[in-house]
Amino acid sequence: MNWNFAEGNWKQFKGKVKAQWGKLSDDQLDAIAGQRIELAGKIQEAYGVTTDEAEQQIKRFEDLHRESPPEHLS
């Protein structure tokens, strides 16, 4: 998964994030705005996990959503 793509298309992408981490509020998702570091911090806060665990969860999420941006955006 390309985080630059996710950040640039956050409004469309955040539904996938919300599906994965349902405890994150819409306000938190808006604050994250596609920034990976912000996502990790919000996961830590919402789920009470360590930095390493949050990073592992994000890595698994990236692996599940390995998709290329649409051709007209690449």
From TrEMBL:
Pfam families reported for this sequence: CsbD (PF05532)
CsbD-like domain sequence ranges: 6-55
Entry superkingdom: Bacteria
Family according to the record: Belongs to the UPF0337 (CsbD) family.
Name of the protein this chain belongs to: CsbD family protein
Organism (species): Candidatus Propionivibrio dominans
